[in-house]
Amino acid sequence: MDHQEIRDGNELIKNFMGSTIKIEQDDVKDIPLAFLKAPDMKFHLSWKWLMPVVVKIEDEEGHTVRIEGNSCVILSGEGEEASAEADTKMTAVWRAVVSYLK
Length: 102
Description:
The chain is of the alpha+beta class and 102 residues long.
């Protein structure tokens, strides 16, 4: 992934998530997004950042996110919405999420 792809993708995710990522763990703080710039966002690097996005797609959008090996598919009741394969599981999930949000 190049820097522009990461910046653009993380900005799409930020817009989708709103001002804060709520973390449902007592020992982990919520992630405020409202004042972060694209280079400060870690959706492409951290499961702590990325998994709340997956949960929102499943719980609020009503889609299924299927992660297998180094591939990810986002499914709706009508079929495939987005998919990606990559060298790592995290990159595949990140790319599928970004593709879904476009």
